[in-house]
Write a structure and sequence with these properties.
mainly alpha, 8 helices, elongated, 132 residues, 2 domains, Serine Threonine Protein Phosphatase 5, Tetratricopeptide repeat
Length: 132
């Protein structure tokens, strides 16, 4: 139901639907991911971060959850924490060019241009391999 409401851009109703899903099954990683998505759409980043951390507790080996956490922490200007989250995502999915780019972006923001350049180069290399 929440997905349909989300697709209809009825975001607050979708949020309530996802909240209800979590009450019914607090062990559903999918419900936490959906909550993260809708709260992010609503620019409620602190709440989205809490939902994302719920998804990570349930599925700690899913790289996208860690990457989502990094993105949210960036939005909250918590760059060192964002870098840590992206590094964990990278540990789980070392061939994901998008994660490497995100690491480069955070390193740039942190004033670490040489490390950022290395991350961007790794992303370009992975993109080239994917197109080959």
């Amino acid at each position: 139901m929440g997905d349909v409401l989300y697709d209809l851009k009825r975001y607050e109703e979708a949020r309530l639907s996802y909240e209800q899903a979590l009450r019914l099954d607090p062990t559903s990683a999918e419900a936490y991911v959906n909550s993260t998505t809708i709260l992010t759409t609503l620019s409620r980043y602190e709440e989205a971060l809490a939902a994302c951390e719920g998804a990570i507790r349930l599925e700690p080996r899913y790289a996208l959850n860690h990457a989502s956490k990094g993105w949210l922490l960036e939005r909250l200007a918590r760059y060192e924490e964002a870098l840590t989250a992206y590094q964990e995502a990278n540990r789980l999915a070392p061939n994901d060019a998008g994660i490497w780019r995100s690491i480069g972006d955070v390193l740039t923001t942190l004033g670490r241009p040489q490390e950022a350049q290395q991350a961007y180069e790794k992303a370009r290399q992975l993109d080239s391999e994917e197109q080959a």
